[in-house]
Amino acid sequence: MAQVRIDQSIAYLKGMEQMVTDFEDEAIHRGRLPEGAYEVFEHANLLISRAWLVIREQLQQLQYS
After folding, report:
1. CA distance 58 to 63
2. Is the pLDDT of residue 9 over 80?
3. Cβ–Cβ < 8 Å for 23, 55
4. In which band, very low, low, confident or very high, does the pLDDT at 6 lie, cut at 50, 70 and 90?
5. Which range of residues forms the domain containing residue 38?
């Protein structure tokens, strides 16, 4: 059960990463970023990085239990 939840979290997180990357690429391609967009991208990437750390910890706990 825990492995299924972790797998779902990983799939969701990969989707979020792709969405942020696509939005950032589209904004750069248009040659303009809305005011505050850079900070939003930084914040989103920070949250994604933290989520990966949590998932990694959960996988380690699952492996040792």
Report:
1. 9
2. yes
3. no
4. confident
5. 2-64
pLDDT for residue 15 is more than 80: yes
Q: How far apart are CA 40 and CA 64, in angstroms?
A: 36
Q: Side chain identity at 51, as an amino acid letter?
A: A
Q: Find where tokens 């239990």 sit.
A: 65
Tokens of 4: 């299924």
**Which amino acid, one-letter code, is at 62?**
L
Q: How many residues does the chain have?
A: 65
pTM of the full structure:
0.71
- Looking at the structure of the chain, the number of domains it has is 1
SS3 31: coil
Q: Which residue has the higher pLDDT, 28 or 56?
A: 56
